[in-house]
Amino acid sequence: MFQDDALYSILMFCAAAWLFKMWLADLSNFRKSGEVVKGAFEGATPASGNLVIIGVIGALLLLSLHTSSEYAAGVAGEQTKVSAWALFSWCSAAFIEELIFRGYLVVKNRSVLALASSIFLFSFLFAAMHPFLWDYTVPEGGSLFAGKWSFDFSLQALLATLAVFECSLFFYILRFLPSNKYRSIIPCIAAHLTYNLGVFVIKLFSGFVEW
């Protein structure tokens, strides 16, 4: 997959860093003025430290649940191997995916039902976009359009997709908790980064990271 490619991972990390810098500028403007500037990035608002801690602890609990579920189902050894370069992609995704999904892809300022429905819909999309049930392989030396699709509906792939869906629900909850007064995505980013780093560490100690 693209995440294992060094060039792709570095470019994605640079893009995330560039976007994050602009996002931080909007956050700084909010702290100075106390209001969202027109055209500012979604969720570029402050959040309490307690909510960030809740996000981190919640992510670790979810990771523990998902890992133990894979071991209980006897499919922990079927997880995919990743390149060490994937760490850069996963760290980048913790910001970019939160900005896109928890920031923009949700119905806000309407009924509770509309909000909840959009959260479930976009969480399903978020899970489906992760390449567990599918894969697109480009042959060495071939063009991007010469690749082949393959599908995997094994128990391990289904559990991994379900785990991503559950994580997405949790990230959305963090943003729309009543205690998140300004609808900041900071707790979402913290939780997502914690989960991704946790997955990488588990893969590393399980021998599923290739150097």
Structure summary:
The protein is mostly helical. Helix content is 63%, strand content 6%.
Oligomer: single chain
What sort of overall outline do the alpha carbons produce when their principal axes are compared? Answer: globular
Number of helices: 6
Topology, number of strands: 4
* Gap from first CA to last CA: 15 Å
Helix content: 55-70%
**Rounded average pLDDT:** 94
Beta-strand percentage?
5-15%
**H/E element sequence:** HHEHHEEHHE
Radius of gyration: 18 Å
What does this structure look like?
The protein is mainly α. The chain is 63% helix and 6% strand. It has six helices and four strands; from the N terminus they run ααβααββααβ. The chain has helices at residues 6-33, 49-72, 86-104, 112-129, 155-176, 186-206, and strands at 82-83, 134-137, 148-151, 209-210. The strands form two sheets. It has a two-stranded parallel ribbon. Strands 2-3 form a two-stranded antiparallel sheet. The longest helix has 28 residues, at 6-33.
Keywords:
211 residues; two-stranded parallel sheet; two-stranded antiparallel ribbon; 6 helices; 4 strands; 63% helix; 6% strand
Topology:
Elements: H1 6-33, H2 49-72, E1 82-83, H3 86-104, H4 112-129, E2 134-137, E3 148-151, H5 155-176, H6 186-206, E4 209-210
Parallel strand pairs: 1-4
Antiparallel strand pairs: 2-3
Helix pairs in contact: 1-3, 2-5, 2-6, 3-6, 4-5, 5-6
